[in-house]
Amino acid sequence: MQENASRSLPVIVITGTPGTGKTTHAQLLVQQSPIPLQHINVNELVKEKMLHDGFDEEWQTYVVDEDKVVDELEPLVSAGGGQILDWHTCDAFPERWIDLVVVLQCNHTQLWDRLEARGYPLKKIQENNEAEIMNVVLEEAREAYAEEIVVPLQSESTEDLESNVSRIVQWIEAWQKNQVLDSGS
């Protein structure tokens, strides 16, 4: 945690099963944040920078090389923070990087509909739905990071979205105050 104190801006992970609203939350947070934050959609970064070992046709997804992802992000995070890392998993990121992990959750029936609307193959919908029911992403976050920085939030409606972003903005404001207090001591 000591390395976090040297950063001027926080690093926030917004994670959750595909279809829970990570990208929408991150985009709205960038707009409403009292400090400048850079939204990094890790899936897009993987495609853009070829941080994968090919495409899995059966699952219709890239086989991500997590080491390459971490190596790509390290200079950004080390340069002072200010990132929102948007990805369906979070345990690949070193604990020293992260100040807050938001795990978005959604009713599995609603999630099924969202993934179906995206045109996901049935097998992929079933796997993601099962992961949501079993709280896989939340458990991974709790195993990888300190309990006090992992925050599960419901993401089923526009009201949830607005409330969640407002809560994260409040967290950022508190984080800023703590940084000022810590630097003054």
From TrEMBL:
<keyword id="KW-0418">Kinase</keyword>
<keyword id="KW-0808">Transferase</keyword>
<feature type="binding site">
    <location>
        <position position="22"/>
    </location>
    <ligand>
        <name>ATP</name>
    </ligand>
</feature>
<dbReference type="GO" id="GO:0004017">
    <property type="term" value="F:AMP kinase activity"/>
</dbReference>
<dbReference type="Pfam" id="PF13238">
    <property type="entry name" value="AAA_18"/>
</dbReference>
<comment type="function">
    <text>Broad-specificity nucleoside monophosphate (NMP) kinase that catalyzes the reversible transfer of the terminal phosphate group between nucleoside triphosphates and monophosphates. Has also ATPase activity. Involved in the late cytoplasmic maturation steps of the 40S ribosomal particles, specifically 18S rRNA maturation. While NMP activity is not required for ribosome maturation, ATPase activity is. Associates transiently with small ribosomal subunit protein uS11. ATP hydrolysis breaks the interaction with uS11.</text>
</comment>
<keyword id="KW-0963">Cytoplasm</keyword>
<feature type="binding site">
    <location>
        <position position="24"/>
    </location>
    <ligand>
        <name>ATP</name>
    </ligand>
</feature>
<dbReference type="GO" id="GO:0005737">
    <property type="term" value="C:cytoplasm"/>
</dbReference>
<comment type="subunit">
    <text>Interacts with small ribosomal subunit protein uS11. Not a structural component of 43S pre-ribosomes, but transiently interacts with them by binding to uS11.</text>
</comment>
<feature type="region of interest" description="LID">
    <location>
        <begin position="117"/>
        <end position="127"/>
    </location>
</feature>
<feature type="binding site">
    <location>
        <position position="21"/>
    </location>
    <ligand>
        <name>ATP</name>
    </ligand>
</feature>
<dbReference type="GO" id="GO:0005634">
    <property type="term" value="C:nucleus"/>
</dbReference>
<dbReference type="InterPro" id="IPR027417">
    <property type="entry name" value="P-loop_NTPase"/>
</dbReference>
<comment type="similarity">
    <text>Belongs to the adenylate kinase family. AK6 subfamily.</text>
</comment>
<feature type="region of interest" description="NMPbind">
    <location>
        <begin position="41"/>
        <end position="64"/>
    </location>
</feature>
<dbReference type="GO" id="GO:0042274">
    <property type="term" value="P:ribosomal small subunit biogenesis"/>
</dbReference>
<feature type="binding site">
    <location>
        <position position="23"/>
    </location>
    <ligand>
        <name>ATP</name>
    </ligand>
</feature>
<keyword id="KW-0547">Nucleotide-binding</keyword>
<protein>
    <recommendedName>
        <fullName>Adenylate kinase isoenzyme 6 homolog</fullName>
        <ecNumber>2.7.4.3</ecNumber>
    </recommendedName>
</protein>
<dbReference type="GO" id="GO:0005524">
    <property type="term" value="F:ATP binding"/>
</dbReference>
<keyword id="KW-0378">Hydrolase</keyword>
<keyword id="KW-0690">Ribosome biogenesis</keyword>
<dbReference type="GO" id="GO:0016887">
    <property type="term" value="F:ATP hydrolysis activity"/>
</dbReference>
<keyword id="KW-0067">ATP-binding</keyword>
<dbReference type="GO" id="GO:0006364">
    <property type="term" value="P:rRNA processing"/>
</dbReference>
<keyword id="KW-0539">Nucleus</keyword>
<dbReference type="InterPro" id="IPR020618">
    <property type="entry name" value="Adenyl_kinase_AK6"/>
</dbReference>
<keyword id="KW-0698">rRNA processing</keyword>
<feature type="binding site">
    <location>
        <position position="19"/>
    </location>
    <ligand>
        <name>ATP</name>
    </ligand>
</feature>
<feature type="binding site">
    <location>
        <position position="118"/>
    </location>
    <ligand>
        <name>ATP</name>
    </ligand>
</feature>
